[in-house]
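User: Hi! Is it possible to get a structure for several chains at once, not just one? Here's what I have:
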Amino acid sequence: MKYVKHEMGSYNLHVIKTDHFKTVNMRIMFKRKTKKEEINYRNFLSLILLESTKNYPTKREIEIKCEQLYALSCRNEAFISGNYSIISFDSTFLNEKYTEKGLFKNIFEFLFDIILNPNIVDGKFDYNSFENVKKSLINNIESIADIPDYYSEDKILEIVGKGTPIGLKNEGYLESIDEVTESNLYEYYKSVIKSDNIDIFIIGDIDDEYIKKIVSQTIPINTLKKPTGSHYIEHEKIRKRAQVIHEQSEYKQSQLLLCYKLDKLTDFEKQYVMPFYNYILGGAGDSKLFQTVREKNSLCYGIGSRHIVIANLLVIKAGIDASNYKKAVSLIRKEVKNMEKGLFDESDVEKAKSVLLNTYEELEDSPANVISVYMLHEYLNKDLLDKRAKNVEKVTKQMIVDLAKKIHLDTIYFLEGKHS
Amino acid sequence: MKKKKLDGLDLTVFEEKLDNGLNVYIVPMEHVKGIYATLSVDFGGDKETFIPIDGKKMVKMPRGIAHFIEHQLFNQKDGSDIFAYYSERGTSCNANTRNNKTTYLFSGVNFLEDNINKLLDFVFEPYFTDESVSKEKGIIEEEIRMYDDDPYAQILYHSYANVFKEHPLKAPLIGTKESINKISKEDLYTTYKTFYQPSNMYLIVTGNIDPKNVIEIVKENQKNKKFSKPHKIVTATYNEPDKVVKRKEVLSMKVSVPKVAISFKININKIKNIKKHEILSYLTFIFDTKLGPTSLFLENLKKDNVIIDNFYMSYIETDMHVLYLIQAETEKPQELTDKVLKEMQDLNITEQDLERRRRVLLSYQILASENIYQVNLKLMNNISKYGCILYDAFLDIKNMNMKQFKYVIKNISLENYSVLTVEAKK
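Assistant: Yes, the chains can be modeled jointly so their relative placement is included. Here is the combined structure:
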């Protein structure tokens, strides 16, 4: 694999040339500072570009074109990455070896058409496309509550992250959705193209100079953009006593979530020590939480912990019966305390190490994962795979215990279902 | 070892049947680091009524026993933890139960020999105790409750129940609180011994491997194990009618937007001289072309505010029937249902549509041949559904034609449908 980064002034082009895959994958990312009032706009934009273009004025025509281009797949997503918000445009298509000569040219033309040639009528986005997207977005916002899993996670982040980007909702806000119109969305689109930071990642058996030429000819943007700051959210306030929030629900199962704040971790801790901590505590089937809460006490089917890197949070989640609330909370808190006391073995550290090393090696088998490695390097300054493997070797049990002291329970959220 | 190419995909499968009957399939893949192994047994939720290996009469086990065994095989006699064993080797391990198979798997980069041996050891060395069985019940009860709160799981359960009268699919594979509480240690052993014999199982390994090395490890492992002589497994057969059980059901759940699920129960046994997987390709082609994202029909439904997003389409097969399930979110369930049923009355499709479809299906084949998981899954599906690997799948797609298509639609009926509506509970 050969990686080249071209700094083109108004955007960066990252080319990873490799003959390991049958596909070519491209990811185009637009980013700017997170602002609550822009979330709906960005969600609209991510969907509407795939809804129609000037040359393909309906979704149906876009879909037919994708099929003709050998099942080209395109996915758009807008999400909050801490202090920054990103619109990501992903596509996967087959190599010319498996299709036909000249396919790349047609595909790039089509993909850039989607992004740069939207279906604008009289200075506004096309009405039908706009309405379709609006219905989808409203549906996405409302349907979060259909699945207790999503609802409870959304809820605890809203509570813990109040006043920071953590507390903002990825899916957007119903109360302000009508503020977005076909015409102000077009204004917003223009400002995104002009002033968002843009990174284009492409991986596959593709010639670096060829792709550079195509992209520079197609992208008409030439404003110079400043480098951006850190995505990470650091916490200003750490609670001495955790808050407990109960909510009643109609669900049969109860959702128990414990959210911990990670206070002033070093870069090394964020990137290397925390994955160890998380793996040992609640990352897999042999973790402390899984063993204690599920296997020994049969209180749940699913339990685990998740490290939300950008937000510096650790969230523990379990689906339990309402009558087991007290028991589950105390077992979980005890396991977390045990981490701080160092009540885990060197062998746990070694296990986590092998799993992490294995994960790094396997990342290279997937084009999307390789792109993510370079993207995280670009955005979060995360190390590339070679360096990661070396650094993982340095992690010790003592480092994990020291880190455990910086982890503070902030909120217990209990979405109470009916007692069985 | 037999060696055969997967047409059009630059992949070769190495096949061998061991003396004890275990079928082994190995696909070495270039440029990858990972290894993915799956050990499946031809036993899932569909076969819970059977003649036990040491019995004469048909026995109906409590619903959910296939899935229960899957959980319990992780219980070890020496108290050791399978997950920990694999983690120590940087490997992850899991299992799942389907209606037509149960699968145990691992994926990792190193320690191939250890990993394969462990897989073949824990699946072939059951250890069920009253205590372990009783603990498992609490865990599975919570798993059941998790699905109780999931509207999408409920749609599947109710749709299947409305369609199937006799076939086991009529009840959820996981069982109910009542049924799983009836399961005893003895039931587990009886069922295990009947189905978990090498000749009823298959191992598929894909990724960064040398086939010779893999087969040696497997043979060495199996050599040391004692199995009873392969015997013929007799399971209940079901005389499933073509008619659905219930035409219509309205369910009230905590959902934000009402949902509709239309199930078409299609008998495919009247279609002769076309391979089953090809019939399915044609059927999927019909539904996709009529209702999918490239159809004018869908475009109009969106324009008329009848549907919000695309239809979600899936299917499940039995020996005789295919159930196509068409799901959508809509504020106008009745209008949507009427329109879909009307649209499916006319199955005229053009040569152009078929041409585009062929290209898409061929592309999907290649797209799904890039990683170790998809290649493994493809073989697993081939074996569990058709009993062998479809080496010529690529060619079969190239040969799809209008004549066959017309023959297929002439011999199927879309009259047997059932409509489930999920209303938003106030």
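Chain A has a mean pLDDT of 94. The CA atoms of residues 280 and 377 of chain A lie 25 Å apart.

User: Great, thank you!
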